[in-house]
Amino acid sequence: MANKTAFESLAQNVVDDLGGPDNIKSFTHCATRLRFVVKDSDKADLDAVNEVDGVITAIKAGGQHQVVVGNDVPYAYEAVMDIPGMAKKSVKDQTDGDEVDEEEEGEGEKKSIVDKFIDLISALITPLIWPLAGIALGKAALTLATNFNWLNPESTTYIILNAAYDGLFYFLPMFLAVTAARRFKCNEFVAMATAAALLYPSIVELASSGQEVTFFGIPVIMMTYSSSVIPIVVAIWVQSYLERWLNKVLPSSIRNFTTPLLTVTVMVPLTLMTVGPATVTLSNWISDGIGVVFEYVPWLAGALLGAFWQVFVMFGLHWGFVPVMLNDIATQGFSYITSPLMAAVLAQAGVVLAVALRSKNAARRKVAGPAALSAFLAGITEPAVYGVNLPLKIPFYIGLGAGAVGGAIIGAGRNAFDAFVFPSLLAFPAGMNHGSFSALVIGSAVAAVLGFVVTYFAMPWIEKKYDPDVKKATAEAAKDNPSAMATAEGADLKETSAQPVAAGAGAGAAAASVATATATETETATATATETATVGAAMDGTLMQLDQVPDEVFASGAMGAGIAIEPTTGEVYAPVAGKMVAVQKTGHAYGIKGDNGVEVLVHVGIDTVKMKGEGFETLVQKGDIVEAGQLIGRADLKAIEAAGYPATTMVIITNTKKLAGVTPTTESGTVGHDDTIIHITK
User: Which residues are known catalytic residues?
Assistant: First the structure.
């Protein structure tokens, strides 16, 4: 039976190989991994850690040294804490340990400036991105209605609808004050009070009146802060330092009410006199700079955005453009950046539509059809890019080329959007008032049609190159495992475990691939081994080959054999009957020790630990006894998507090496939670 005593040797060896307690700044754990922040990476020997008995694998990722232990990681964590000098370094309350504050890192490994900037923008904008995008569609539709004289802009109906659609953008500084306060760790309500003062009617009137404004005789340059982005973010950053200093020096008897009082008293005039004018001027420079590029080489600017936007999205770099777009709309009423993105999005949509119509792989068509619909209508390209185009490689590249051509046409027309909307077929009204609307329509159409046509005629060659027959290779690799052979013979989809497969590809292919991996680990299994257990699907969705999961640990099989599911609903079910041995408080991972002797890890999403439990709900606790098919949790798939993480869910047999065979058996790509997806032989 596992306990912390059993992990004493592992803990001591891991700590020693990472340079000892003196080299470890902080550590924590998640569902399966110990996570260490070290001071000097040169003193940490990951190769040695990998050789420690009980360590599944060790990797360096996210500025941390991550040691994969498995479901019993809480015991390993306790064993590490028992090592002299380590208890004070634990980050017990940190949500799954994916991020360590810079203050906690101290001399530890730092993120690059670019990474820090992207993290900051993501933290500030992510909670607002869907309200901004959705409400902006209403604003664009209202513009369309007035342009076609369907609605009188002087009518009270228009005034009410305009308030509904424009309120978020007008008071954007107040919303950003909340997200900035969370990021910079200061009082959210005091931050909102600072933002509210900038938008107070009398302050707005002073900014528009042109009269001389002073504060105790000091001249104040008045600016308009409605819809602004940068000023409030900088102001709240400064406020966070002021708050912490006041809380430190003020007596506890008066601290609770004097800190807010003094903070607002200092920050509002300070922002109006210094931070505000400086950041508004900077914002104007940024907008003017972008305008210059589009003025002199508009086609090139459009082509670059059309070609590389999806690449920026893949690496998270697109967050750096969002505040610039918002700032442009706030300062000059429109943004040049957004319109060429129509070509980038619709090109990938056209490509995936061609795959849906032309592919000979039925499972791939099932994924591509809905992906095309979401890309065209909502501008959501993740299902298309990650599920179809990128795994097949060539379609993704075709989309980049088509996006460049369409983006160049849109850029040449100097078209700009006057609302922050996600590029899609529904976003055209936002581009009616600035530049050439014809260029926007033509460029978008060219991108979509070009991507569709080239992909449609190239698909036979693409599938011949990237979708070869899996049966022969799998049969040879699985010859030592009769149960794996049987599964391979049933695979009717042309996928190979040696090459990429589209996310959501057929279960037969996924079964063959995992069976191949299992065969290597079970050479000692006898030909008389019989099936003794089954594992069900943890979620409704489409099966995905494990080695296509974008996580090194899971994809390599280091955690054990298994399969992945692209979920269509957010309910999480117990795949086996047994005892809950691990229930992460973040709700993204569950460990179950089955009554049938099978140990199963259900991990919902990739890097969803960073959501810190937001969007997840657990319905069981550690130690609970559950039945197969019992609802154990829920995940908000829209929240996961909005946070920028894949919802791909792994069902892993963590004691694979103790079993004779672990064989996925469902041939259909679509599964329900009551379906059997893995057969176990002992």
Answer: 30, 603
